[in-house]
Automatic annotation (TrEMBL):
Residues 1-22 form the signal peptide. This is Alpha-amylase. It comes from the Bacteria. The keyword Glycosyltransferase does not apply.
Length: 612
């Protein structure tokens, strides 16, 4: 963490002998019809600041961390651990929405027979705690998360109210593509017919079936699957009674999926006949569509504010075109976020599918990851705004961590959590769309340990009972005061707090247009465009310059240039008579006059322009 003091906000300035910005004295008579440094997109203010927490892990105070440990051994966070103090501190980070991950009841090896929920067969469960994406009952919440398991829904409803009382909105998962093999709803409302109840199991595909079948073939547990390593799981015998076998969640139409497949799940049938050219059968409306609509209405009526929808491209876009408008009739302000990875289909899922936001993983995340690992170039960032999300950047959710990705501080990603300083600044300010923080990211959680089903992979487990060590230092046995954090961790958390608060409050960042300054500066001797990235965000009320240095070990003193076309685009004077000050909104300090700033390694600055 050698550069943390600087990244946290202390500036190193050179003697003010050279101007920070070269301001040309003449403006062109006109600007090109298509300026290559910007787009004609009209930004929309969609700057949600989302805090994702793995609910099972967030409030866990136990630090034993025994591989394959039980709930009693390794502990488990509860809804009630998300206290008023915890929510105050989350809100103070600048957060507007909390995504409670893994709330819906899913398959688990933990026995809740006293509540009518026996442990699932270990042969079709991943991890002692189980995957939160192997849903066992769409109408219930995980008993793990309740202090009193029989009172689990009441405790979740109280958390929703508590979250709202702190001025925060609630997001939760919707997992539309697949369910646990042992899916059976015990909590469904009166009159609801369970998934698969009326299916014709003699048909591999039926337009009104909820599942796909392999008639005449029993399910075969993947060879070599060892659910709990050296330990024995409930009913573990290498067998699972399912005849006929159902298709597996990741579109595997075989009775014997591999151990690398999503074998613990079964694929839901939305009217697409995968085995006959993906023929669509959408009229009449498939039964699965109606059941999923009803499930979403159930949760919307519990006053959640939106859904993060899992693997949306594995479900036909026609379903989303049907269900999202239906839900917005029930609750107009609902937010739908789609986990999407095919950048060629983004517009389809936004426009036809009616999603509010989509993941920007294969574009911005992947480009920033390469830069953080000293493997990429800032050209990757230009590619994102200029092509991949051109015209709809306000609808792309940006992040550097989530439950699927490796931790920044892990040896598998970037090792040093400070490498997030320039990257997270770009993540939060490149456009006016939402930004997401994963719990523990703000204190440099490295995701160390082989938790059980999750091996040593740089991720924080979603399958096992576990304590998250660096996060637990902030949790401080439920005090949520950061009492056990190091000085470096407190400074890192302070950076995230300043950045996210600024992103959520700055007029220019929330709704401003974008103008890249790479072309204006790339001929400068001190402007290494592989490491430096600079751009403007601006409205008629505020203009800011963002400049970051991705180099882990080299400082630069570039003498930045704002081009005449950029001044004209901003609608402010760019003549020599127009003199500006530059206040660093991210790091603080006095307004800067004419000076040549040293951009330290792994640094980020957000300057507000003010005319003197």
């Amino acid at each position: 963490m050698k550069n943390l003091l600087l990244a946290a906000g202390l500036l190193t300035l050179a003697a003010p002998s050279l101007p920070l910005f070269f301001v040309p004295t003449h403006l062109p008579a006109s600007i090109p019809a298509a300026d290559p440094n910007t787009t004609d997109e009209v930004p929309q203010d969609h700057k949600l600041i989302i805090y994702q927490m793995m609910t099972r892990l967030f409030g866990n105070k136990v630090a034993l961390n025994k591989p394959y440990g039980t709930l009693a051994e390794n502990g488990c966070g509860k809804f009630n651990d998300i206290t008023d103090r915890a929510l105050d501190e989350i809100k103070a980070l600048g957060v507007s929405h909390v995504w409670y991950t893994g709330v819906i009841e899913h398959a688990t090896m933990t026995d809740y027979a006293a509540q009518g929920i026996p442990a699932d067969d270990a042969d079709v469960v991943k991890g002692r705690a189980g995957s939160p994406y192997a849903i066992k009952d769409y109408y219930d919440v995980a008993p793990d998360l309740a202090v009193v398991p029989s009172n689990r829904m009441v405790e979740y409803e109280a958390l929703i109210r508590r979250t709202h009382a702190h001025g925060l909105k609630v997001l939760m998962d919707f997992v539309p593509n697949h369910v646990a093999r042992a899916y059976k709803s015990d909590a469904k409302p009166v009159g609801v017919i369970d998934l698969g109840t009326t299916d014709d199991k003699t048909q591999a595909f039926g337009p009104q079936n909820n599942f796909y079948y392999l008639p005449g073939q029993p399910f075969v547990v993947p060879a070599g699957y060892n659910p709990l390593g050296p330990l024995k799981g409930p009913r573990e015998d290498g067998k699972y009674a399912e005849n006929p076998a159902k298709a597996t969640g990741n579109d595997v139409f075989s009775a014997a999926p591999s151990v690398n497949d999503w074998f613990e799940t079964v694929k839901l049938n939305y009217g697409v006949d995968y085995q006959h050219g993906r023929a669509a059968h959408f009229s009449p409306v498939p039964n699965t569509w109606k059941k999923m609509r009803d499930i979403l209405v159930f949760w919307a009526q519990k006053d959640v504010d939106g859904f993060r929808c899992d693997m949306v491209e594995m479900v036909p876009v026609e379903f989303w075109a049907y269900v999202i408008p239906e839900l917005k009739k029930v609750k107009p302000g609902l937010v739908f976020i789609g986990e999407a990875y095919n950048n060629k289909e983004y517009k389809t899922y936004l426009e036809k599918g009616h999603f509010d936001y989509l993941y920007d993983k294969v574009g911005l995340y992947d480009g920033l990851r390469r830069l953080m690992r000293s493997e990429g170039s800032t050209d990757d960032l230009t590619q994102v705004w200029k092509q991949e999300s051109r015209g709809f950047s306000s609808h792309m959710l940006r992040f550097l961590e989530n439950h699927d990705e490796q931790r920044i501080a892990s040896k598998d990603f970037a090792t040093d959590p400070l490498r997030a300083v320039p990257a997270m600044t770009v993540t939060a300010t490149l456009a006016s769309g939402p930004v997401m923080l994963y719990f523990g990211q703000e204190v440099g959680e490295p995701g160390r340990g082989s938790e059980g089903f999750s091996g040593e992979d740089g991720r924080t487990t979603i399958f096992d009972y576990w304590g998250v060590p660096e996060h637990q230092k902030w949790l401080n046995q439920g005090k949520c005061d950061g009492g056990k954090l190091s000085a470096e961790q407190r400074k890192l958390r302070g950076f995230y707090k300043r950045l996210l608060t600024l992103a959520g409050s700055s007029d220019a960042i929330r709704r401003g247009k974008f103008y890249e300054l790479q072309d204006a500066n790339n001929l400068g001797k001190q402007y290494n465009q592989r490491h430096l990235y600079a751009y403007l965000r601006y409205t008629d009320q505020q203009q800011v310059l963002v400049v970051v240095n991705f180099s882990p070990d080299k400082a630069y003193q570039p003498g930045l240039i704002i081009s005449p076309a950029a001044f004209q685009a901003m609608g402010i004077p760019g003549t020599a008579q127009a003199v500006y000050t530059y206040t660093d909104l991210l790091n603080g300090g006095e307004p800067l006059q004419a000076l040549n700033e040293v951009l330290e390694p792994l640094s980020a600055h957000i300057y507000e322009l003010k005319r003197r």
